[in-house]
Each structure stands twice: as C-alpha cells, then as structure tokens.
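Hey team,

Sharing the Heat shock 70 kDa protein 12A run so nobody has to redo it. Sequence (600 residues) first:
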Amino acid sequence: MASRSVYSGRKRKLVLAFDVGTTFSGISYSVLDPGQVPEIKPVTRFPAHEHISGASKIPTIIYYDRTGKVRAVGAEAMKEGIYELAEDENWTKAEWFKLHLRSKAGAGRNLATDNIPPLPLDKSVIDVFADFLRYLLQCAATYIQDTHANGAALWASFKDEIDFVLSHPNGWEGTQQQDMRRAAVQAKLIPDNASGHARLTFVTEGEASLHFAIQNGLPTGAMKQGDGVVIVDAGGGTIDISSYCRNVKESKETFEEIAAPLCNFHGSVFVSIHARLFLQQFLEDSPFIDDLEHIIRCFDKTTKLRFRNADEPSYVKFGSTRDNDEKYSIRFGQLKLQGSDVALFFEPSINCIVKSVTDQRREAHKTIRHVVLVGGFAASDYLFAKVQAQLAPAGLNVLRPDNHVNKAVSDGAISFYLDHFVRTRVSKLTYGNFCHIPYDPKAPDHKARQHKIFVVNLHDNRSEIDFWLVQNTQVTETKEFRKSYFRESHSKLEFKGASFNVWCYRGTMPDPKWKDIDTNNYTKLCTIEVDLHNLPLDAKSKPNGGGVFYRLDYEIMLLFGLTELKAFVAWKERIVYSQGVEKRSATKIVYDPDITDSSY
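Structure output:
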C-alpha cells in the first residue's frame, strides 16, 4: 500500500466521489483535517438498504410518476411491492440511463444501442443524471451526519464548499464531461460559475481503478520493478482497459499511462441482454413467455452471479412449485439452462477482455506483465477464471484484489484526488486544426488538389490538418502545446474576441493529413473561445503616412495531459527595458452536442 501525505490545507474540507454506474452506484468520501493523514471511507448505508450490513452500492434506478416527479431511487426502487405499485400507478423506470451519455462518434446500430432502455418521456439524460446526483448527495449527507461525532455540525461546516470527483468510462470525452457538469449544476452540487466549476474534478474509471489497486495490492513487480500492468475495470455497462507502469526513477510514487485507454460496451448488462435474446426465442411458444421480464430479473440476481461451470446446468428460480412445463425445462418454478448456453452469454465479454489486453500489450510503450481485474463484473468467478486461463499462457499474471472490487472506482476516485499518482497519459486520438498552406507544384499530393487552389496575398494555398498531438503519444500533465496567432485591424473593436476549432481524427490512417481522405473520421472536438479585451495592442504606422493600424500577437496553449482538456491564451506584457513578461488567462471550451458534425 502506498503511503499518503498529511493534509497541508489550513481549513477542514470534504471530498465526495460519486461513481454513477450503469447498474450500480457508490459513494466514497474523505474528511480532510489539517495536519492529519486523510482516510478514504465508503458510504455503506442507504435508504431501504439499511438491513444489508456494509452495502457499498445501490441500484442505478429512478422511478418517475406520471407528472415527472421522482418517486423511488436506488434501493428504494427495488423494495418489495414497488414493481407492482409502479405498474398500478403507471410510473416510468429510468435504468441504464448513463449509457445515453455515451459518445456518438462512430456510433451505429449494435447490441448496445438497440437495447438501452429509453429515457422517460420529457426527461433528458441530464435531467435524470441530475436527479440521481441529487439523491447521492442526500445519501452522503445523511450518512455523514449519522455516523460522525457532531455529524450535523460537521456537515453544516462544509456543505457549501464540498469538492466533488465524478468518474466516467475511458471512452468519454469533453462532450460527456460538459454534460456531467451541467447535471452537477442542475443537481445543485456546485454553482454555475468559475469557482463552482473548479470544485468538480473528472477521472476516468480506469485511472480511478489504478489508484484503488495501488492502495489495495498491485503486484510486487509493478510496484517495485516498474512492470507494466493492465487494469481491467469490468462494470455493468462498459469494460474499461487502461495500462500503466510505475516510474521507478522518481523518489515519490508516480505512474505513467503506457497505452491509449480503451472502452468497450461489453459489461455485465450484456450478459443479461444475450440471455434475454436466447430466452425470448426459447420460450416463444411457451405460456411463460409473459414472465420473461421477471425471469431475466431473477437471472440477474442469482444465476448470472453464481455461474461457474459450463459443463453443469444452471437454474433460474422465478416461480412457485405449481409452475411446470417439461417441454421448456421448467419444473417447480425453476427454468433449467444448459451450462454451455449460459457460457455463450459470457463469451463476448470474455473475448473482449482478452483481445483488449492483447492489443494493449502490443501497443504499450513499456512491457506489460500483469493484469488486474476490478469492478462489479470482475466478481464473477467464471469471468475471472476464463480470462485467467486465456491470458496466463501468454506469460501474464492475472489477479483480483482481495478488497471489495465493486467499490474500486469510488474509492479510487478519492485516492486520485488525494494521491494523484498518474502524471503522464497517452493520447487516444490525433488532435489538430485545419489550416491553409502554400501550394507546392512539385508535391504529388498538392498537384492532385490543384483544382482547390485559392489565392491569398499572391500565395496559392491548400487546406490540411495542422497537428497539435498525434495519437498514442505519451504526454505529461505539464506539457504545453502552443500555436502562435496574430490579428491586425484599423479598428480596436475588432479585438474583442477570437475562436477556433480543435479537430480530431478517429480513423486508422497512420499519417492523416488531408481532410478529403477518410473525411468521415475527422470530427470537431470543441471550440476554443478567447476573450481578447485585456490583451495589449501594438499601434503601428503604415508606410508613406498611410495612417495607423493595430496588431495583437498571442498564443493559444492546450494541455492534453490532464484528465480534462484545458486551454489558455498567453501574451507578453511589455515592460520598459524588457522583452516583456508572459501573462495568461483561461479560455472557454465549448463542446458541440453532436461531435460527429463535420462542418467547419
């Protein structure tokens, strides 16, 4: 276990981490006291869940009534009799709603998109997400007040200054972070201003899981010798794959990401989807087809969790002793399934993990020797055994931490806030913007595009991508990517603001260059909006007494190495007898709702 420094702040602070999972969600927190070593604590008691000692997660479910009012959330939504009450009063259930936030880039119809339950009528995904965040905050407040000495006074002392950490799948980008921030504001976790936004931090589920694993037993080789390790966060909706190694040259424990992280829609809900598709066909002509929803719920609660052997039958207990149908393998309220059929439900997820780990090993900047499985789906002994059996012959050490793997993300998110082990990350995509370049008649690719020439200041020009950062590049958190810009005008009114687009390439070309090749894989990531009001203008005289014009020189600076893209504008403040001192200020980053828009 890595050591943790004492909290050096002057004021007591609370940090809350919300892990909103596809099927289950959890909360972890830390009370930071000056001069004390912070501890990570889980919330282990929730409404309607009090009878389960040490329960660290609740179902990610919300029931709305016909007016759109929240009626039951989490464990309350699974109470005995709620399902019948919801049917009688025409409530609407929102589940798996997290998947509606997923990136639409490259999205098409598939098993994931075809089987995500729709959102309730007149509710956006931000509305539902905000309602669930609001509920988690209430649960955290109640738990802390009930379990800490002078809990009510403690909560009152920092309830308006809480720092929040929200985790999300590896595949999510700035668009999804922007939506989560909107939900956090709507839920009143933070105010909608700069200081409020600063209290919200994002971390990928893969990186949070690494922090959990560091504190709960990474292999000795990974900790002492710097061996590469793949963290497999197998959750309800996604399987996130991330690879890291410890920087053994540093005296302080720091890690670097060594391969671009992956995110796959093959979490545990897809085992249930495969089971549903199978049983829908198997029971098609059976009178029990009307019980399919109930049968799947029973499969989820018991059969899926207990499955261990493809050579033995599995049973789904869903009814009473009076429920029998020999033709469809139903006796005394139990549906008998062949183990080999249940194994097929798991197969896509197992194959996904094995392939993703193999790909990471091939692409990684360092040698990978270990694989650590965490997340609720990793608790499946069958999944773990099959992954281990397929990867061990390749020389990989596959293991699961002893401590509760299903709370890895929320605990790890707090550790990310406190310990911040990762200082280098790998770019998932190629980033840049489009620019015009002088035409070169000797270059074949220029000649092929001579019909697109246009003239600016007597120079022939063509448009190509100007790279900021190439895919699969290791980037430190402090690495600054700069581009110089200038603006000239007769009027000072032309210097109010500027904006430009950041693009990314999502295809497979090793050297993307021209936008007219593989066009559909270039997507606009965001727009950087720059306030130029306070930047100093240089007044310049035109030749031959032609009057005065103004020029502004500045740089746009992007930081890709953090868990969230940051952008700044930098300029020189001129001082007498000096070359000038650099000043900088933050810019506004605006993500398009539809990141597949290819106009520019």
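Residues 339-363 form the longest helix (25 residues).

Ping me if you want the raw files.
A.
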